[in-house]
Amino acid sequence: MTQATGSGGGRLAAAPRLDDLMPWSVAPLRLGRGWIMAPDAASLRARWAALHAVGDDCARERLFRPSRARTLRTAVPQLPGQATPTGRLAHSTGPCPDPVRVLHGPYDQQWLLPDHRLIDGARPELWRVADGRQVFVVELGQVPQAEGPALVASALLPDGRSPAGRPGRIRPLYRRPGGSEPNLAPGLTDLLARRLDRPVGAAELLAWTVASARPAPSGAVVPLTADAGVWEEGVALGERLLWLQTRGARGAGTAYGARAGDRPRMPGGRRPYVRAPLPARGLPDTLAYLPDEEALLLGPGRISPVPRSAWEAEAGGVRVLEAWCERRTAPVAGPQGLEAVRPAAWPQEWTTELLELITVLSLVGEARPAQQALHRRTVDGPRVEASELRAAGVLPPPAAARRPASVLDHHEEGPDGQFALL
Questions:
Q1: CA–CA separation, 41 vs 112, rounded Å?
Q2: Which helix (H) or strand (E) covers residue 308, if one does?
């Protein structure tokens, strides 16, 4: 269920685009230097300390890796919501900024130094609306003939990276902090409510989108059913997928017996366990999968059961588990800089994160037949097409809906400690 071609593909051409339904989108973050993100927070603190321990200005500059957008002497405002200094790094002797959890690519939760002086393109408008109510939808760039979802949802701030290198877009559900002003085409939920003869809210529409969005060459499309029964089925499925993709932070996992706030877990007999420990010294240098035994091998370590669907799960044109492990174990390429500061042995928290990722991918795989059935019922039944939305004046969305909202009550520090006016 990955392409807007093939069975039902012709009829999907009339479906509205995600870009029109959620008009405000932001380009992926542009870090500019790889050392400011890592799978563990301790490495980031060690890298910060190593940078500031260098007394020679030229050597420090080389470690920093300056770009056209950022050098040690660049003056920039503070990132919204972060308490980092704004004085130039060349004169900074302060403590390491507290690393924050972010979503790297579709499924990899990593850590980032949230310092605007370090990030070439941090997208402050995203940080401004990131809070406990926000949900970000990351549209993955289409990879022809590749398996995987059209988009993923995140409660964490995402970097928007598409693994295969195709540019994607980040779409917040809300345009303002506190879950205010949904990022939806004006009039969309009202029209759907009339067609379905039931209330339709922003959260429901997001759940439907996560369950039904399909990749297409011009950007993801979202088939909209006009059948209330199909709508309720799709919203329930989308709530489960939201719960899985956000690791229990959003959506509902009641279909799996979970309560609000629970993190995804598989039934007892199917939960993945560590059957042979990972190396106490060094990092695993091999990765293999034994399909007959449903076992994942990392060096001498062994984890099972790992369903084939989890091992084969793809997003953005790459296998999720392979990419996740490679980011933690592959030798550092290029000159040995701050990226080389990383764990010398496999941390215990990585094992916990890997078991959770296997669980998430397994449960998402179990939901795939329901997604395929939902797609068939939507395509074969009554729908709200893009032409109807245009006739009703819902599309195209106004130009203002594609721009970030003003947040006048948000105080932020500008360069060198000055206050910024928004």
A1: 8
A2: helix 308-312
